Amino acid sequence: MFKKLVITVLFFSLILNSEAQENGMQEDKQISLMPWPEKVEVKASGFKIGNDFSIYIHGDVSETSRIYKAAVRFIRNATDKTGVFVAEGFPNTDNITSESASLNIHFDQEAKVEQGIDESYKLSVGSDGIEIHAVTDIGAMHGLSSLLQLIEVQGGHYEFKGVEIQDSPRFVWRGLMMDVSRHFMPVEVVKRNLDAMALVKLNVFHWHLSDDQGFRIETKTLPELYEKASDGLYYTQEEIRDIVRYADDRGIRVIPELDVPGHGTAFLTAFPEFGSKEGMTYSVERNSGIFDPTLDPTNEKVYEFLDILFKEVTALFPDVYFHIGGDENAGRHWDENPKIQQFMKENNLKDNHELQTYFNIKLQKILEKYGKSLMGWEEIMTENMPKTALIHSWRGVNEGMQPGESLVKAVKNGYQTILSNGYYIDLMLSVEEHYVVDPMPAVELTKEQSDRILGGEATMWAELVTPLTVDSRIWPRTAAIAERFWSPQEVRDLESMHNRLEVVNQYLELIGIRNQQVQAYLLRNISNYQDTHALRQLVNISEPFEIYSRNDGGTQYQTYSPFTLFADACTADAKDKRRFNKLVTKYIEIQDAASKEKLVSMLERYASIEGSLESIASDAPLVGRVLPYAKRVSNIATLTGKGLEEGMLSASDLEGLKTLLGQKEDPAINLDVELALSEDFQRLAEFLAK
């Protein structure tokens, strides 16, 4: 889905301030939980982690139960973090009683993983022990996720921070969508991201399994789909069942998406007879974009085909919802087909939108046969669409929509809805731009209408990511989005969010997310395994192009292109950006010596980047491609540093800096990055020029 949307936060933005929050965020300097709990109180002392640490789970619990396996994972993660050799590596052994256990877990029932279950929990940590109480085992697992993040060092040893927490989610739908059609994501990639979702209490995995670039499911009844339209990259049915079980063990629902009637090139590569343009030969797309191949909604055999497919696929996924896509269909092939035009006249369908509604309603009836409820992107919403459909709001101002317009329209017209506009993490926007977007719109709604807003989903479209880089595009930013879905609305302090996000990133790495490891690998690869220090300095102040401008038009990269370049090593939130911004702001305000000294030190490092890279470029062709950009950065840093040292910037140097800051990279180089500090360099230069 190649969606050129610009995130506008006016409609959804929260009122930001840096004051302490009423729900306990005055303690945010002491603990770094994410998402932030509903209520939290910090105690004077915590629980020391020693080799006698043990867990007792109350109730009739087998070794195959969800909570037992979660407790085992908790022990492994905690001991990996602390290096403590515990005597009891499993809960409820013969040597453990409720009285002797360090952690007692209480819950009332094992929950079915479905919408609306009780996910609340209470967590108490003190010097004499730890208690988790929950209605369901999934609530208890959320308590374990919070407890893992409470590990800290006190007095030279590890302990769980002393707290009293009472917690429950704000929204029932807290999702991550992963596109595996543009770039296939192997089972191990999906699983480690499910682990990360569980850590930050996300509970819906939306699996985008078909698009123009590939169909990714083994089917027994229609094998042509994966044989002709997957390049051999697909999930077997046993792998799908395995992932569904894996997600269920973590309290996560799995919702499949097969995108129809548009985004249909892969379908039609296998079954061209179902296309809307007669005599056309189809092949799997290698570029990105919105393409014309579309299923023919006037052909009854299309519905027979989809009935066979849906019957088989729905059996693999226990959740009640099935996502049919339904987006970005301009209907050009419909317009060019006289038979389709005649059908529309005979059935009083005035436009393509009404024709697609006809199609969607037929699909809804098919899905109902198999016990499923239809959901789709917001284009499926028309006055004739049954109110049982779930509307997925995604479009922004670039599509001619006001931000959140479809979400408000949906709830006012009686539909349940979720929000993704504002959470498109593939846009490479800063974490702050996502964090200030809220699923609950800033317009007046009745309670009944508000209750129809189920939550939201972060969306990871895969045009520009591979299994190697996908973790770095999802995490850690999605942890902040998860907080928006879970935590009270008033939790909105940006400084606190940034501080806690740095810590949760460590726990993400602990459980297997590879965003930090992969960046280091990419820099080694770019340098041809030479010294990467200068490259890391440059990465720390660079960000990839935003909002699909890296691949404008969808043809710069193909699905088989390399994504191991400098832009792939950069992230949406450059590491040095906030620090540099704070130092520049402080220096402009008070011209203090400490800020000046730190700025000079940073500028000296940036000024040296070009020379350091030149020394290794002859043995690293990929470094040679970075050098023109590095030269510009070094010149900017040198001129700014000169002005800072002298306490002033000449008019000619100011113009030189403006020219350098305004330069764009040579598109032939395909570097596709921008200097993340540009605005602060501009501010500092203009101040020094005065």
Q: Explain this structure to me?
A:
- The protein is of the alpha/beta class and 690 residues long.
- It folds into 3 domains: 39-167, Chitobiase, domain 2 (2-Layer Sandwich); 173-510, Glycosidases (TIM Barrel, Alpha-Beta Barrel), CATH 3.20.20.80; 516-689, no CATH class.
- The protein is 40% helix and 14% strand.
- The chain is built from 25 helices and 20 strands.
- The strands form 4 sheets. Strands 10-11-13-14-15-16-17-18 form an 8-stranded parallel β-barrel, surrounded by 5 helices.
- Strand 16, helix 11 (405-412) and strand 17 form a beta-alpha-beta unit.
- Helix 1 runs parallel beside helix 2 (137-148) and helix 21 (593-607) runs antiparallel to helix 23 (621-646).
- Mean pLDDT is 93; it is low at 1-24.
The gross shape turns out to be: globular
Percent of residues in helical segments? 25-40%
- Per DSSP, the total helix count is 25
What number of structural domains do the residues give? 3
Low-confidence stretches: 1-24
Please name the CATH architecture of the largest domain: Alpha-Beta Barrel
Described by its quaternary structure, the protein is single chain
Determine and state the CATH class of the largest domain.
Alpha Beta
Class computed from helices, strands and strand pairing: alpha/beta
Radius of gyration from CA coordinates? 27 Å
Spatially, the strands of the biggest sheet line up as: 10-11-13-14-15-16-17-18
Task: Summarize the helices and strands and which ones pair or pack.
Layout: E1 39-42, E2 47-48, E3 55-57, H1 66-82, E4 103-109, E5 121-126, E6 129-136, H2 137-148, E7 151-154, E8 157-160, E9 163-167, E10 173-179, H3 187-199, E11 204-211, E12 214-215, H4 224-229, H5 237-249, E13 253-260, H6 265-270, H7 300-314, E14 321-325, H8 332-335, H9 338-346, H10 352-369, E15 373-377, E16 390-393, H11 405-412, E17 416-419, H12 431-435, H13 447-451, E18 453-460, H14 470-474, H15 477-486, H16 494-510, H17 515-526, H18 533-539, E19 542-544, H19 566-569, H20 577-590, H21 593-607, H22 609-617, H23 621-646, H24 651-662, E20 673-675, H25 678-689
Parallel strand pairs: 3-4, 4-6, 10-11, 10-18, 11-13, 13-14, 14-15, 15-16, 16-17, 17-18
Antiparallel strand pairs: 1-9, 2-8, 5-6, 5-9, 7-8, 11-12, 19-20
Helix pairs in contact: 1-2, 3-5, 7-10, 18-22, 20-21, 20-25, 21-23, 22-23, 23-24, 23-25, 24-25
